[in-house]
Each structure stands twice: as structure tokens, then as C-alpha cells.
Design a protein that fits this description.
By secondary structure, the protein is mainly α. It has 12 helices and no strands.
Length: about 270
């Protein structure tokens, strides 16, 4: 049992789970815009997410705090190195314009982690900014890049889906911020720190209403996708409703981050 828990913790701590969520969102993008499965694009995002998230999570731990490196962290470092190699491999299979835009997303990720400006913290520690940077990166990686690589023009549907994807990630992060409220530095000015937990939950509920309603305005609207989106909205509302600071870390690190995976599986099997 202990071994299973260690494997499961490694699965979460190494960012494989969150990478699967991004991978699922890329597949949802393929589905919505009728793009034939693009393996280099999907795997570029998958391995890129592992690299990006592990860089964000462990850079300060190793570079700044200089903590002793555990066995698990060494294995994560090996996984991250392999992922870097695979990101490079799939990067050169993408179209040139996709490569250029992906550099922009990488630059935002680096800005989020590293203190580029003298006497300034990294963007991750800028008051009230974290949630927007993460949401923009997710939209860019899971929606913008696949469309650019498939050479699909930016129509009204594209902008509607960008708004929906941004709202989805924003709401997911709200749940994280509610659970992290007791541990987050007060200067971060996260949404729960600024407006309180009750209003944060209300904000999440209210944002999910236009998220679903926007589906009606998509040119490829169909009842099948609308019903699946409604199920996902209800699922998210339940996660928001039951979120509190006493919840286990697995509440967000596994269940909440699995929402895009559940969404993708519903599209595939239902």
C-alpha cells in the first residue's frame, strides 16, 4: 500500500497528471475544430507541460533554497530531462509559426519563474497576477498552438473557445487558491485573499454560466457537446462548493486537475 502511495505521489509530483489534463484539452480542441489527430502537437504540449510545471515547481527549491535533493526529486529531474529531449524532437516537427508562438509561451513561463528584473520578484509572486498568467499559458498551449499548426483561421468560434478555455482554467485555479489560502503569502493577493472564500465561490459559479452559454454561439453547436459541457459545469460547481482549506492536497492535485480528462473521456465515450 505504501508503494502504491509513493507511485501515485510521484505521478502527481512529477506533473504527469497535469500534463495529461493539457493533453486532454488539446484533444478537445481537435474535436471542436475537426482537426485530424496531430501527434507531434499533442505530445509537444504533453511533454512541454511536464518540463514547464517541474521547472516552475522545483526551480526555487533547488536553485534558491538549495535543499538536499531527495530520491524522488532526482527521478523527477531525469523525467524532466527526457521530456526536454522529447519536446525538442516534437518541436522540430511543428510548423515554423507554431514554433515562434511556442517560444512566446515559454517566455511567459520563464518570466513566471525567474526574476528577470533587478530587485523584483518573479511574476509568480506579483500581486494578483499569477492566476491570469497561468490561464493565458494554458489557452495558448492547448488551443492557440493546435489551431495555428493546423492552419485554421481565427474565426469567431476561435475567440469564443479562447474565452471559454480561459474561464475554465481560471475557475480551476480558484479552487486551488481556496485550498491554499492558509499557506499563501498574503502579499500575493489571490482572489480568496482579496474578496474572501464565499465571494470567490460565487465568482466561480457566475463565471461558469457564461462559459456554458457561450457554447450556443459556436457555429458547430450540437446538443451532444452542450450536454457534456453542462455535466462538466455541474462537476466544477460541486468542486467549488465543497472546496475549503481543510481538504486533502489530492482534492486539487488529482481530482480538480482531472476535470479536463473527465471532459475528454465524456466526449470520446458518450
Amino acid at each position: 500500500m505504501k508503494l502504491l502511495k509513493q507511485i501515485f505521489d510521484f505521478y502527481l509530483n512529477s506533473s504527469i497528471h497535469v500534463a495529461l489534463s493539457c493533453f486532454a484539452l488539446v484533444h478537445i480542441t481537435f474535436h471542436v475544430f475537426h482537426i485530424q489527430y496531430d501527434e507531434p502537437m499533442a505530445l509537444f504540449v504533453f511533454f512541454g507541460t511536464i518540463v514547464g510545471y517541474n521547472f516552475v515547481k522545483y526551480d526555487a527549491l533547488v536553485r534558491v533554497k538549495k535543499n538536499p535533493i531527495s530520491t524522488q526529486l532526482k527521478i523527477i529531474a531525469v523525467l524532466s530531462f527526457i521530456s526536454v529531449v522529447l519536446v525538442g524532437y516534437y518541436f522540430f516537427q511543428l510548423k515554423r509559426v507554431t514554433q515562434i508562438v511556442s517560444f512566446g509561451i515559454f517566455a511567459v513561463t520563464a518570466l513566471y519563474t525567474l526574476p528577470f528584473f533587478p530587485n523584483r520578484r518573479n511574476a509568480r509572486n506579483w500581486a494578483g497576477v499569477k492566476i491570469y498568467i497561468v490561464a493565458i499559458c494554458w489557452v495558448g498551449a492547448t488551443l492557440v498552438l493546435p489551431l495555428i499548426n493546423a492552419e485554421i483561421p481565427f474565426t469567431t468560434d476561435f475567440f469564443i473557445k479562447c474565452i471559454q478555455r480561459f474561464v475554465l482554467v481560471f475557475v480551476l485555479i480558484l479552487v486551488f487558491e481556496i485550498l491554499d489560502l492558509a499557506n499563501d503569502d498574503p502579499h500575493l493577493q489571490t482572489v480568496p485573499q482579496t474578496i474572501g472564500v464565499k465571494k470567490t465561490k460565487l465568482l466561480g459559479f457566475l463565471l461558469l454560466i457564461p462559459f456554458w452559454c457561450l457554447e450556443i454561439f459556436v457555429s458547430t453547436f450540437n446538443y451532444h457537446d452542450a450536454i457534456i459541457n453542462l455535466i462538466m459545469v455541474i462537476m466544477l460547481m460541486l468542486f467549488i462548493f465543497f472546496a475549503n482549506t481543510n481538504r486533502s492536497k489530492y482534492y486539487t492535485s488529482f481530482w480538480v486537475e482531472a476535470v479536463p480528462i473527465f471532459w475528454w473521456l465524456m466526449i470520446v465515450y458518450f
